[in-house]
Automatic annotation (TrEMBL):
The keyword DNA-binding does not apply. (S)-malate binds at R142, N401, N445. SMART domains: malic, Malic_M. It comes from Laetiporus sulphureus 93-53. This is Malic enzyme. Belongs to the malic enzymes family. One of its GO terms (cellular component) is mitochondrion. Its cofactor is Mn(2+); Mg(2+).
Length: 543
């Protein structure tokens, strides 16, 4: 790669900045004479659209990225709403299910339990050690709502990092997709001769913890400027390793914290719309969750922390929240429960176990119903009609992924609420027409948050990802709606604006890092907000 040293001014001091230059065009004769970048992007889009099946589109895009990543990212940036559902949810779910069958060429790092004791040696095989800035790490134990997919979880790490590049301009060469192979309990995969992972069941937790300790230690030693995103670990592992490592290394868990941030943001905009219809204040909000796993509890925690920021006591804040898991409403008298659920267990209910969701809604009278349960169709007609009877504008977020696990589809929510629903889903749904009006679903997916959060953490060289940084990303997203988007009742900005939004979020995250004293790019403290925004934008990689 060619390197050019550009003079830049930082705080009145001129410094030389290393600017990697695009590779020179191939020598004359090695490209057809009429080959130019703009037409080639059109050519690639046509080839993509000629494929009938989404998984074929996924394979095509994977190969395009491998062969010519600039064209791949140009295509992504120019066609975000068309490409995102292919490289990310829902199609990435199919790609994970079929990974060992559709595999062409390796991408990313595979580290298995057999590497325990020599993980550093394996990490040093990464070809671009000095450039590493962000790793998305999964152990494949809970991929979307699809369960334990073992090594087949790798496309999740790859897909998330593609969104970091497309959505926040993170340099492609600085991204490291990682899949940890600690075995799988997926019997179908273990019996599949093409399965690419170890043929063994998952190792016990103590062994996993020893492995994770070594892994994180070696990662921080070998990649000193690396931010780590934990992704799609099973519930207990997700909470355990976030708590264990977050004070020691710059890392966050996307399912707990990224989801918390994105849902808080959509909820705030939804509550504003609902209050215009019913005059309800934030203190009147009552939020019912279906699903009390890493995502459900992550979102409940983020909402609680926001309510406290608004002046409520801890107790008042928690009183706004009810959780339902596979056993029904969570309450103290129900008996022993997993640690992460305890803080939201209701003390004020002591009746018989309540399992039927419509009955629970009648009891709780929620203003918002949030689904993070992986149960397709759980928000049935009776559920949505009950929510619509209780609320002028019911807030219904059907957040489970991929699309086939969504608690309800947008057209159902529109029909059963007579067009009154304020809706978001984890995977995208098409817009609907109701009574001559076009209604748009929001995509309540952490993809709106993690690119900007990661960019801010990387650029500030944060030594830790604090709760305040996560919260800043959420409020930054909530504020990012344009007047036009607000006029259309949108609760999330249009995905086409993701770069602009990520830059704004990154600035808020940098400021939060500074306030928390975890930033290490200290010269940014001197910049005014508009200077910081320009600086962040200038840092973004363009294909
Ligand atoms: N939109 C977004 O940005 C995101 C969406 N998600 C999606 O959310 C879903 C859940 O993820 P995550 O929380 O990490 O998964 P977990 O496995 O940690 O949690 C799943 C939760 O759903 C509950 N559940 C299972 N079956 C039922 C049922 N029949 N009725 C009520 N609750 C039930 C489980 O209950 P129990 O505790 O009793 O087992 C558990 O509390 C996934 O589909 C995932 O793709 C996740 C992250 C981000
Ligand atoms: C979006 C996401 O992170 C999930 O479904 O797990
Ligand atoms: Mg996830």
């Amino acid at each position: 790669m060619t390197i050019v040293l550009n003079p830049v001014w930082i705080n009145g001091v001129q410094k030389l900045k290393v600017v990697p230059q695009p590779p020179p065009r191939p020598a004359r004769g090695l490209l057809p004479p009429a080959m130019d970048e703009a037409t080639h992007t059109v050519r690639c889009l046509r080839q993509l659209r000629s494929k009938d099946k989404n998984i074929e589109k996924y394979i095509y895009l994977t190969q395009l990225k491998d062969a010519d990543h600039r064209t791949f990212y140009k295509l992504c940036l120019d066609n975000m709403s068309e490409i995102t559902p292919i490289i990310y949810t829902p199609t990435v779910g199919d790609a994970c299910l079929q990974f060992s069958h559709i595999f062409r060429r390796p991408e990313g790092l595979y580290i298995s339990i057999k590497d325990k004791g020599q993980i550093g040696k394996i990490l040093r095989n990464w070809p671009r050690i000095d450039e590493g800035r962000i790793a998305v790490v999964t152990d494949g134990s809970r991929i979307l709502g699809l369960g334990d997919l073992g090594l087949n979880g790798m496309p999740i790490s790859i897909g998330k990092l593609s969104l970091y590049v497309a959505g926040a301009g993170i340099r492609p060469s600085s991204t490291i997709p990682i899949c940890l192979d600690l075995g799988t309990n997926n019997e179908q995969f273990l019996a599949d001769p093409l399965y690419l992972g170890l043929r063994q069941t998952r190792v016990p937790r103590e062994e996993m913890t020893e492995f994770m300790e070594e892994f994180m230690h070696e990662m921080s030693t070998i990649f000193p400027n690396l931010l780590v995103q934990f992704e799609d670990f099973s519930t207990d592992a997700a909470f355990t390793y976030l708590d264990r490592f977050r004070q020691r290394y710059p890392l966050f868990n996307d399912d707990i914290q990224g989801t918390g941030a994105v849902v808080l943001s959509g909820f705030l905009n939804a509550a504003r719309l609902a209050s215009q219809a019913a005059g309800k204040e934030l203190e009147d909000q009552r939020i019912l969750f279906l699903g009390a796993g890493s995502a459900g509890v992550g979102v409940a925690t983020q909402l609680t922390s926001f309510f406290k920021m608004q002046g409520m006591s801890e107790e008042e804040a928690r009183k706004r929240i009810w959780l339902v898991d596979s056993q029904g409403l969570i309450y103290d008298e129900r008996g022993p429960m997993a640690e992460h659920k305890k803080q939201f267990s209701r003390q004020d209910y002591s009746g018989p176990p309540m399992k039927n969701l419509t009955e629970i809604i009648e009891y709780v009278k929620p203003t918002a119903l949030l689904g993070l349960s992986t149960i397709k169709g759980a928000f049935n007609q009776s559920v949505i009609e009950t929510m619509s009877r209780l609320n002028a504008r019911p807030i219904i977020f059907s957040l489970s992924n991929p699309v086939q696990l969504s608690e309800c589809e947008f057209h159902e929510a529109v029909q059963w609420s007579a067009g009154r629903v304020i809706f978001a889903s984890g995977s995208p749904f098409p817009e609907q027409t109701h009574d001559g009006r076009t209604l748009y679903p929001g995509q309540g997916n952490n993809m709106y948050v993690f690119p900007g959060l990661g960019l801010g953490a990387i650029l500030s060289r944060a030594s830790a990802v604090t709760d305040s940084m996560v919260e800043a990303s959420s409020l930054g997203l909530a504020d990012a709606l344009t007047p036009e988007e607000r006029a259309q009742d949108l609760i999330y900005p249009r995905i086409e604006r993701i770069r602009e939004i990520s830059a704004q979020i990154a600035c808020k995250v940098i400021r939060a890092a500074q306030r928390a004293g975890v930033d290490r790019t200290v010269e940014l403290r001197e910049l005014w907000d508009d200077q910081l925004l320009d600086w962040v934008k200038a840092k973004m990689w363009m294909p």
